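Why this split exists: single-chain examples teach little about how molecules sit against one another. For that reason, every record in the complexes split bundles all components of an assembly together and asks for one structure covering all of them. Below is a record exactly as it appears in the raw files.
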Amino acid sequence: MRNILEVRHLCAGFPTLKGEAVAVNDVSLTVPEGKIVGLVGESGCGKSMTARAVMGLIRYPGRVISGSILLDGRELVGMPKKEKRALRGSEMSMIFQEPMTSLNPVMKVGRQVEEAIRIHEKVTAEEAARRSVEILTKVGVPEAKKRCLCYPHQLSGGLRQRVMIAMAMILGPRLLIADEPTTALDVTVEAQILQLMRTLSSGGTGILLISHDLGVIAQLCDHVYVMYAGRIVESADVNELFDRPLHPYTRGLLNSVRSLRGGGDVLDTIPGAVPNLTRMPAGCGFSPRCPERCDECVMDVPGLVDMGNGHLVRCRPAEGEEAK
Amino acid sequence: MSGFLLEGKDLTKEFPAGGNKTVHAVSNVSLGLNEGETLGLVGESGCGKSTLGRMMIRALKPTSGEVFFRGRSLTAMSDREFAAVRRRFQMIFQDPYASLNPRMTVRSLIAEPLETHRICSGKKETTEKVLELMDAVGVPGDFLYRYPHQFSGGQRQRIGIARAIAQSPEVIVCDEPVSALDVSVRNQILNLLSDLRKTRGLTYLFISHDLSVVRHISDRVCVMFLGKICESGPTEEIWSSPAHPYTSFLLRAVPKADPKRRTDASALLTGEIPSPIDPPAGCRFHTRCPYAGKICAQEEPPLRTWGERTVACHFPLNR
């Protein structure tokens, strides 16, 4: 299977008064054609920054420090802006969490959906309009022709998110990055959007799904990367990850979710909070909160080790346990 | 007389929407809280759950209907009379970033309700009480003179909770208290809320769109759809045998954290939530309901009651 996206040893960060904060630290990940790959983590772990690095949307003074990003074999790091702009929308596109803030409030929906065609291709106005109605129908907007004449505020949250997806999909990109696409939506509408994402991926689009919600990840993804404090701490096939989580952080997250459904009186928690980027603990970033911490953990950052079946984990105690 | 600690009867709230239109946020809803219980209020955005929660503690005046606290009508009280009982009711909000004044220190934030209600005499006693409250919610006492921006989201929510329990209230309306928090921190706050309920004998009205959170914390649950309660009853009974079709779809739509149990397309509701400006006639859910019959579009379903359960549906499930 072809890999649409290959990120290798990516580092990205932004300057602060206390020196450069490295928000994305040595991240490598792969999105194959027609697959949904999940990137899960809590707020501030660097998952959105990773997505923005791929799209080339990191705002100055933030920057990609080092590493490589290959989109279908082409290197994006260091590519001239103009060339990258030609790829955005046509080869790769992105949808965001809050559709209301990403749509232009004073522009009719149809016009916004057509925009990508008008910019990337030489087509007549009628053709562009016809194709925008077509894609809106495809993503499940009822009475698409009528909706094209609406402004974003006249649509419900679910419809706005569908419009965003239509905008992202109109040129048939090979890579779609979805950053928390259902977080702002209600459960019944969320389920519809997840179903739509499945349909898109079966059409061959590779999807990088960013989410903090393990439920969404479990429902949708083929492969999952878990991120904590800027680093990938675990990577595995979705069934493998939920059956045999190896990293204490992944286990903590899963226990947090499962104990909520278990009906016990006291819920499992992970003590403490996510560390501040400018005050990162020495060694493993999770060590201050980790129940399995040993002396070595605070010395240096453990490497990502293959535990078999392509299940990677960045944790010394977990390695030791498996070896026994 | 019912034995409810706090009871809302036939509450209705309408907001003007301009151009002779009205938003029917809550229509004819009755609900009661027993002393010491947690009542969950679930529903999707715009269903009126926050509006209802606010009316229950007279933070919002109902268009019609009455609220009773220990048998006394809160809605009939004058402002002066209500001021005397107001400290019995508190709220915890969703966004701890927005609900704390960024220019106040933790001490002054937590001391504010104590001073307003003249609970402590003198600065020293106030500081002692503040430290005691910080200890109760798990914020280290050394942070007394820090500002909200120096805390994480979870810590900020703890400060919000300390403010809410400062005047020893009896009822707390928790409006999505953990929705803005990360998974690993969310459970810490839920445990704290459970502890406080036990140690301080609190009663919670717990509003949330997150069904798994509501299931964990609530003794009873009310499910709202478009300004109406469509079903209520003991939590586990509702989860094991939902009677209203909407409840059933809502429960099935929750993405389960198990890749082997993926939701299939047949479990999905189609369409969107109708507008509360122009709610459908008859049963408000009938436009999305696959079981709807002719009567559903014409007549509002009566409230059926059995045991501790109620449901407003012409064709209830699992009955």
